[in-house]
């Protein structure tokens, strides 16, 4: 059984009322063979088979405006023609797919030059990995090696990856496993203004959360630390965006106690927050190490780590080897992504469109009591849903329903937060005004159906 649908951009697609057998098969294989840790979005999960720019398509040709980008990975737009051309060229020229840092290759050094040119002051060393988790593991190792200390201070509600060390620094129970080793880490209060752990409001805030980093060091370490790790906007934690003043205060504390400041830009990097390629630079955070992944490769599996020479130098004489880290195809895609972001003025666009989106969603707060808070920077936006604005009881089920309703109207968004009640929106940096209006309109319509 089929029917026709005219999508927002005028494209007519044929819809199948029945779930295609291939989706059924995929679900069966997943159910039978996948680890149960692999969860799915939507009651009827969708199979995405094609993508272009800000749109993705399922196997029946249904079009969705992609406002989450896999999971915050689509920075320059899906299948950007310049990246496609460069990939085709490499394949046609039989360019080596895999080589390692044991040999010379210009793709990795081209990327190194470019990323260092975008790094905050004082950062001039880099390395590449396959993922954000690996980049953070290397960051912990380098900071511990340089300081001779072991203790890592992280933030409650934070997320830094699924590998052992990164998971030890995860501030959310859902991601942790029974008997998860958490040695040599300790957690400070999250700079979560909407649910301030110190019951403060912006009017009477004295950066108690920043000061808690010092209290944490004083009360749960021997008085010296290897590093402090934080995301400049805490993505998985529910797009928690600390106030600007938080960062200099914390940096000072971390450095006073001998630690290195690790800025985890796995979500915020690649221009997502506008103005600069790295939010660490925009916020003038005196970070010693910056890690990246996700949008860095525009979907290619690449992570990166940047650090100051003083942290890199002590690593001399040790070996860090990552078989696929920095492969030519991956590094080429990351470099092209950076060039495209620059050439097509996406940093400005991310900033402007982010503000527009935030404003539009903030306006919806007048209509819908369900929206407790709108926050974020650039194109990394969170909308926290609550059952009651006074009690702030999390509205997790409503969050799931809102995602379903938006999907039915052709919009893909994400969710996160400790309570699973924060909608996450992170479209490609190419998003335009019309598409932003469409996101707001669909969310508005969907919220009206929920109320
Ligand atoms: N840091 C942050 C802030 C992240 O959001 C993530 C992934 N969600 C990671 C690290 C881990 O990255 P990956 O999944 O590529 O290992």
List the helices and strands and how they pair.
Elements: E1 2-6, E2 12-16, H1 21-33, E3 48-52, E4 55-58, E5 63-66, H2 69-72, H3 81-92, H4 106-118, E6 123-129, H5 132-147, E7 152-155, H6 164-168, E8 185-188, H7 208-220, E9 227-230, H8 246-256, E10 260-264, H9 279-282, E11 289-292, E12 303-308, H10 309-312, H11 328-343, H12 346-364, E13 371-377, E14 380-385, H13 396-408, E15 411-412, E16 414-416, E17 422-425, H14 433-450
Parallel strand pairs: 5-15, 7-8, 7-9, 9-10, 10-11
Antiparallel strand pairs: 1-2, 3-4, 4-5, 6-12, 11-12, 13-14, 14-17, 16-17
Helix pairs in contact: 3-11, 4-11, 7-8, 12-14, 13-14
The structure holds 4'-deoxy-4'-aminopyridoxal-5'-phosphate.
4'-deoxy-4'-aminopyridoxal-5'-phosphate (PMP) binds at residues 131-133, 136, 159-162, 231, 235-236, 264, 266-267, 293.
Bound molecules: 4'-deoxy-4'-aminopyridoxal-5'-phosphate
Count the beta strands: 17
Principal-axes geometry comes out as: globular
Estimated structural class: alpha/beta
User: Which percent range fits the helix content?
Assistant: 25-40%
Mean pLDDT: 95
Which second-level CATH architecture of the domain at 86-343 applies?
3-Layer(aba) Sandwich
Compose a concise summary of this entry.
The protein has helices spanning about 20-35, 70, 80-90, 105-120, 130-145, 165-170, 210-220, 245-255, 280, 310, 330-345, 345-365, 395-410, 435-450; strands at about 1-5, 10-15, 50, 55-60, 65, 125-130, 150-155, 185-190, 225-230, 260-265, 290, 305-310, 370-375, 380-385, 410, 415, 420-425.
């Amino acid at each position: 059984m089929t029917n026709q649908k005219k999508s927002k951009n005028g494209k007519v697609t044929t819809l199948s009322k029945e779930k295609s057998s291939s989706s059924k098969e995929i679900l069966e294989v997943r159910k039978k063979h996948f680890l149960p840790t692999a969860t799915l979005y939507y009651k009827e999960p969708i199979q995405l088979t094609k993508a272009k720019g800000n749109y993705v398509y399922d196997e029946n040709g249904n079009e969705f405006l992609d406002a989450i980008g896999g999971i915050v990975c689509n920075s320059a737009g899906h299948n950007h023609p310049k990246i496609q051309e460069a990939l085709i060229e490499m394949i046609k020229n039989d360019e080596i797919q895999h080589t390692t840092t044991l040999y010379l290759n210009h793709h990795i050094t081209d990327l190194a030059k470019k990323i260092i040119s975008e790094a905050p002051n004082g950062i001039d060393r880099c390395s590449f990995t396959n993922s954000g988790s690996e980049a953070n593991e290397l960051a912990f190792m380098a900071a511990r090696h340089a300081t001779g200390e072991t203790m890592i201070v992280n933030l409650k509600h934070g997320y830094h990856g699924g590998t052992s060390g990164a998971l030890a620094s995860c501030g959310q129970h859902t991601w942790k496993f029974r008997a998860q080793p958490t040695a040599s880490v300790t957690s400070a209060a999250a700079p979560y203004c909407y649910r301030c752990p110190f019951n403060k409001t912006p009017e009477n805030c004295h950066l108690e959360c920043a000061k808690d980093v010092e209290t944490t060091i004083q009360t749960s370490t021997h008085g010296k630390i290897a590093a402090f790790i934080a995301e400049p906007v805490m993505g998985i934690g529910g797009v928690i965006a600390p106030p600007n003043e938080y960062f200099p205060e914390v940096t000072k504390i971390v450095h006073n106690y001998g630690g290195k400041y690790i800025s985890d830009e796995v979500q915020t990097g690649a221009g997502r927050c506008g103005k600069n390629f790295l939010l660490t630079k925009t916020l003038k955070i005196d970070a010693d190490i910056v890690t990246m992944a996700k949008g860095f490769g525009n979907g290619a599996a690449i992570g990166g780590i940047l650090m100051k020479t003083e942290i890199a130098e002590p690593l001399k004489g040790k070996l860090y080897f990552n078989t696929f880290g920095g492969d030519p195809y991956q590094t080429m895609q990351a470099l092209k992504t950076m060039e495209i972001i620059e050439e097509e003025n996406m940093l400005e666009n991310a900033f402007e469109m982010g503000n527009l989106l935030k404003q539009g969603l903030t306006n919806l707060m007048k209509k819908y009591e369900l929206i407790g808070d709108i926050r974020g920077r650039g194109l990394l936006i969170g909308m926290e849903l609550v059952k009651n604005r006074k009690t702030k009881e999390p509205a997790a089920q409503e969050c799931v329903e809102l995602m379903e309703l938006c999907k039915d109207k052709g919009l893909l968004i994400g969710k996160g937060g400790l309570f699973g009640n924060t909608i996450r929106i992170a479209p490609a940096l190419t998003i335009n005004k019309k598409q932003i209006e469409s996101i707001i309109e669909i969310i508005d319509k969907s919220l009206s159906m929920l109320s």
